[in-house]
Each structure stands twice: as structure tokens, then as C-alpha cells.
Design a protein that fits this description.
This protein has a 9-stranded mixed β-sheet, with helices on both faces. It has one domain: Rossmann fold, CATH 3.40.50.880. 45% of the residues are buried. The protein starts with a strand and ends with a helix. It has 8 helices and 13 strands. The chain is α/β, with parallel strands linked by helices and 258 residues long.
């Protein structure tokens, strides 16, 4: 039996500062294949190449990956500043309506880092351009130096709502995660539920309340060593279960796989 297909949302890069490519980290594909049990299919996230309608028909679920470019602040009614960093308007044009369509249809997605922020913006929420500048917040950005292992090492706890979706899914109310992001949720979009927070109050885990399907998203990077990490593994396993259900004509809400 063929495995379900997960569309892995890619980012635009310049290879060697001159050759344009769409790319995604191999650790995303590894997590989708090895832990979710699905076929990872890289999506060139640009409306010149693909449409949301086509993607919804081709793929069973979607992994909204992290990426250096940020969601453009015009998408939540604010003007861009230097603090907002770089943008990928082509990805905005696909990812944001894709999230809304998946929420409506019950088609599963898992959001990571920028993908977490996309879910909130797509649902009508807003973002802080640089959370480390806020009083009482820690620096959540990737360490500038060190090995890959050091950059992705666990750096803070995330506390989940007692009895909530993530608590049930992880089997623990508090877990340790990595942290590699500069922006964060400012205001939640209608239906977006913050189900996990960092010690400084930064939202770290969300889902869309009332959605008929799997709509989990996290601010950290669970794709790193997903098969070995006790927090990442149940998250990607649950996403895979929801994606297989969709491919078989069923819909699974987060509560049904937790």
C-alpha cells in the first residue's frame, strides 16, 4: 500500500548567492518519512508554479517548515521595519491560504517555527518582530556559533495546559525543547489556542479550536533528531496518523490522536 503524501513547504534561497532554488532541510524529510511514515514531497512554494487547489488534491497533509524569511507584516496589518527581517512573499501567497483551506476541509498540517507563525497569521493573528526586545523575554534565536548539535540543543522548557491536547499527546505537562526563532505571537487569531508556553510567557504550542482536522503547530524545531527525541517523536507520529486517516477518507482532530 502506498504511503500518504506530505507536502513539505519549501523556502526560496540563492545557492552560492546567485542560483535561485526552492529547498527544505533534509531533517524535515527524514522526520516525515521515518516517524510519520509518509512520503515527503518538496513543494516549490510560489503561485507561479503551484496553486492551493492543486496542492490540496495532490497531498494528504502538509508540513509547514521553518525558514529564515518571515511572514510579511502587511499580512497582519502592520508596516514592515528593519526588525522584521527578510521576507518570502511567494511563500506567503501559498502558505497562508493553504492553512485556511486545510482548517476548513479538515486536512492535516503540522506547523514548525515560521509555520507556527503562519498558522496564527492565516487565522487573523499578529506577530512581534523581535521578541527578545520585549521586557522579560529571553533570546530565543539560534546561537550564532557552535556545531549543529549545539545550535539545536535543548534550551528551555515548554509547559502545556493541564489535560490539553499537547499534554495528552506528550504524556507530560512540561518538556524540554530547542529554540531558534526571533519572532513570536503577539495576538492570537480567532480560534487559535495557545496550549504551551516558554518560561518567559512566549507561546510555543498552538492548535485551531473547532477545526475538523489536525492543526497542531509548535514554535520550536521538532524535526531535529525526530526519531530519537521523546517530544518530537509523538508529535510526528500523531501527524502521520492523521495524514493516513485523511488518505483513507477520514478526519482526525488532535484530541483523537492524543
Amino acid at each position: 500500500m502506498a504511503r500518504p503524501v506530505v507536502g513539505v513547504i519549501c523556502n526560496h534561497y540563492l545557492l552560492n548567492d546567485e542560483y535561485p532554488v526552492h529547498a527544505g532541510g533534509t531533517m524535515n524529510s527524514d522526520a516525515v518519512s521515518a516517524v510519520s511514515g509518509c512520503v515527503p514531497m518538496m513543494i516549490p512554494t510560489d503561485p507561479d508554479y503551484v496553486s492551493v487547489t492543486e496542492l490540496l488534491e495532490i497531498c494528504d497533509g502538509f508540513l509547514l517548515t521553518g525558514g529564515r524569511p518571515n511572514v510579511h507584516p502587511e499580512e497582519y496589518g502592520e508596516a514592515p521595519t528593519e526588525a522584521h527581517g527578510a521576507f518570502d512573499r511567494a511563500r506567503d501567497a501559498i502558505a497562508l491560504p493553504l492553512v485556511r483551506a486545510c482548517v476548513e476541509r479538515g486536512q492535516p498540517f503540522l506547523g514548525i517555527c515560521r509555520g507556527f507563525q503562519e498558522v496564527n497569521v492565516a487565522m487573523g493573528g499578529s506577530l512581534y518582530p523581535e521578541i527578545r526586545d520585549l521586557p522579560g523575554r529571553m533570546n530565543h534565536r539560534m546561537p550564532p556559533d557552535g556545531t549543529l548539535e549545539e545550535k539545536f540543543e535543548h534550551r528551555h522548557t515548554v509547559s502545556f495546559t493541564e489535560g490539553g491536547v499537547f499534554h495528552r499527546l506528550m504524556g507530560a505537562q512540561e518538556v524540554m525543547t530547542n529554540t531558534l526563532h526571533g519572532q513570536g505571537i503577539k495576538s492570537c487569531g480567532p480560534g487559535v489556542v495557545v496550549d504551551g508556553i516558554a518560561p518567559d510567557g512566549t507561546p510555543e504550542a498552538i492548535y485551531v479550536d473547532g477545526a475538523p482536522g489536525f492543526t497542531l503547530a509548535v514554535q520550536w524545531h521538532p524535526e531535529y533528531e525526530a526519531a530519537q527525541d521523546p517530544v518530537s517523536r509523538p508529535l510526528f507520529a500523531a501527524f502521520g496518523e492523521a495524514t493516513r486517516a485523511w488518505s483513507n477518507g477520514q478526519k482526525l482532530r488532535p484530541a483523537q490522536v492524543a
